[in-house]
Fold this protein.
Amino acid sequence: MELQITEDQKRAFADDGIVKLPDLINSKLLRELNECFDWSIAHPGPIASGKTDGENISFVDNGNPDAKPMYDDLILRVGFGGIAAQLWNSKYVGYFAEEIFWKKGKADPTFWHQDTAYQPWSGEHWCNLWIPLVSMSAEQSIQVIRKSHKGIQYDGTTFNPKNPTQSLWGAAAGFPRLPDISAESAADPDSWDIVSFDVVPGDVIVFHPHCLHRGGGTDTTLPERRNMVFRFFGDNAYYSDHLPKTKGMYDLKPIPTAAGGYLEDGDPYRPAYSIRAN
Ligand SMILES: O=C(O)CCC(=O)C(=O)O
C-alpha cells in the first residue's frame, strides 16, 4: 500500500482524533477483506455476541484466536501498519486484533463508548482502522466526538439496548457515567461536536480508541452494514492500570510480555502475542 499520509491528515488525527483516508484500499484487497469477513461470520470466536441468522442481525466478533493466523498474515502483507507509522511518525507499530461488525434488517446503532473503558490502554499512538465494506452516509457510519481522545475516561456501557449508558464498572472504577450523547444531540444538535463521514468501500476511517464513538445501525435506508476494524499501537502506547480487577462483564487477564513477566502500569505496550506490523 503506497499511500503517502499528508500533513493535514496527520494533523486531523492528532487534533480531532479521527481522519478519513479516502480510496486507500484497491479492489483486490477489498475482495480479500470480504472473504475474511465471511470467514469470521461463519466461525464466531469465544467472545462473539449476537446471532448470525434471522431477519434482524447485530453480530460482533472480537479478537477471535482461531482467526489470528489469517488476520496476522493479512496485516503483514497489506501495509496497514505502515499507514499507522506515517500517521503518528512512529518507529514501531504493533497489531492488536480484529473486530467484525455485521448488522442487518433492523439493528440499533452501537452505543457510544470509549474502547479504553474495556482495555488497559493509554498514550497517543493507538488507532482503529475502521473499514466499511458497504457504502454508508455519515449518520450510518462511525461517529466520534471531536477531540474526546484527549478528554476524560468515562465508564463503559454494558451495551444493554434498554439502557444504553448503563455503567460497566460502577463504583469499582469511579469513572463518571457516560452521558446520553444520542438523546442530548437529538434534543440539541450542537450539544456535542460529532465528526463523521460518508464512506464507500475502499475508504478507511482512522480514529483513536479513547475517542467517544458509536457506529450506525441498520434500517430500510441501510439494510446491511459490514465492517471490519483493525487496531494498532505505536511508540507512545502504554499499558495502563486504570481498570478495576473485579470480575464482571469482562475479566481482564494479565498480559504477558515477550521478555517474560507481565505488563505493568506505564510500560510500553508490547504484548508477547502481538505481531509487529511495520
Ligand atoms: O462500527 C461500529 O458500530 C462500532 C465501532 C467500534 O466501536 C470500534 O471500532 O471500536
User: Anything to note?
Assistant: The pocket of 2-oxoglutaric acid is lined by residues 99, 101, 110, 115, 128, 130, 142, 213, 215, 227, 229 (CB under 6 Å). The CA atoms of residues 56 and 105 lie 5 Å apart.
